[in-house]
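Researcher: I'm comparing several assemblies side by side, and this is the next one on my list. It has 571 residues spread over two chains. Same procedure as the others: predict the full complex and return the structure.
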Amino acid sequence: MKAIEIQGLTKTYANGVEALKGIDLVVEQGDFYALLGPNGAGKSTTIGVLSSLVTKSQGSVEIFGHSIDTALEAAKSCIGLVPQEFNFNQFETLLQIVVNQAGYYGVPRKEAIKRAEKYLTQLELWDKRNHRARELSGGMKRRLMIARALMHEPQMLILDEPTAGVDIEIRRGMWDFLRTINQQGKTIILTTHYLEEAELLCRNIGIINKGQIVTNTSMKALLATLNVETFVLDLSAPSADVQLTDFDWRVVNDSSIEVDVAKEKGMNSVFAQLDAQGIQVLSMRNKANRLEELFVAMMGEQANQPKTTEEQGA
Amino acid sequence: MSASVNYIALKSIVRKECTRFLRIWVQTLVPPAITTTLYFVIFGGLIGSRVGEMGGVSYMDYIVPGLIMMSVITSSYSNVASSFFSAKFQRNIEELLVAPVPNYIIVLGYVIGGMCRGLLVGCVVTLVAFLFSDLHFHHVGILVVVILLTAMLFALGGMFNALFAKTFDDVSIIPTFVLTPLTYLGGVFYSISLLPEVWQWVSKLNPIVYMVNTFRYGFLGISDIPVAPSIAMLIAMTIVLFMVILNMLKRGVGIRS
């Protein structure tokens, strides 16, 4: 079963901005899917079309087999949306916000209150249920939007930068929560600027840039295309004493160096050369997240591609 | 969606709307009571006693129906205009737009919410009026029909305004420059039969004249305008505005990009 099937989706806004230029995208049921791209790439427009907040210009969109053209209400029922911006009434209490939201999906009030207890408790907000939303911290507001999106128990959750501005402890808690509900069968689509988050959580990934899908593959396959990784090594000796051949490397500070390691070469030769010089490697880490390296490289390639005649003429 | 699902959605919107205006009762319920009390004291008591009779009844009795109507119109309109625009402004209207709620349920939910506030304010003002005048009900059926239709029409008007509004100024422009003049010139304080013929004709272009007079008929049994055509006109205007708003929502005017 396909959770999402998009074909030839275009969106041109009233001001003439062409946000989507014919997107094809399939997300399978049960997937944990990352939709990545730089600012203004078309991620939020895609999510807007899926959740019917943005009207498409052309193309077809099906959500769990329901076309948004012919069965919009059924399609809407399958989605729980966690938007990028806080979009609840700041003067309402948490309980009012989530119970009303359930009501819009036809969940009777008694049942809605039970679900509110369940999801607000899971997201550690039950104690705050009678507080007004504006009294919450940023992290709590993000979690409130997740609880609200789950109230009608949708098959799919779409999260548009759910951890933006959230501290690492809460972010990790949210990751655990999202992993758990995905394991229970909920399809999750995630957009994020924290590429570490996408790499940790998502099985499949789509990268969108300038309104077009650049890559749509599994996370594993994408990471396998990364040929060179940069590692930072903390050493027992001054970095000025280091001699390495066959590798591109640089001094970071007095006791650290960074080394570019091609996939086919591996790290053993680096360790062997340092060992021969009597230098111990105290610790080692990736300079950047692997997905981040790939993402930056891909966006760089896109930017360097020659412009089409049409673009040059525009 | 099934009828029961829509009914639950409708109840949720109405509950949310009523909770909102009851939460801020000092802003929504108290001011009309104070304002109309002042009207009763100044226009009805102090000035009215010098005016004498109008339409065969005391001036105080004459202005009571119009003042009740005025508070219902203002409250119904402003409730929906400010609530719906705030929902657009804070973007919590998206809570409804992403849900499988048919547009007519959204309109009905907000309109019933506005009507509830309008009618509650109308009741408060009526209670205050009992302190100042010897009110009686000439035709309760007409009173109920006219007040419900008027509250509904102006709640729809508030929604129409909020859909177009882009700033808070846009929400206050129509009440200030259109609604208030039409209400004051709508025969609340005088019988249009006192006006020169040409101004009587101009007054008959003002829909509020029909509402105030029909409502006054329900209380006092007197009206400058025939009652049945007025009610028919109210029904027609309500249906037309409802359809226009539904069409706007369908096209996403003011709410979808």
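Model: For your comparison table: The mean pLDDT of chain B is 91.
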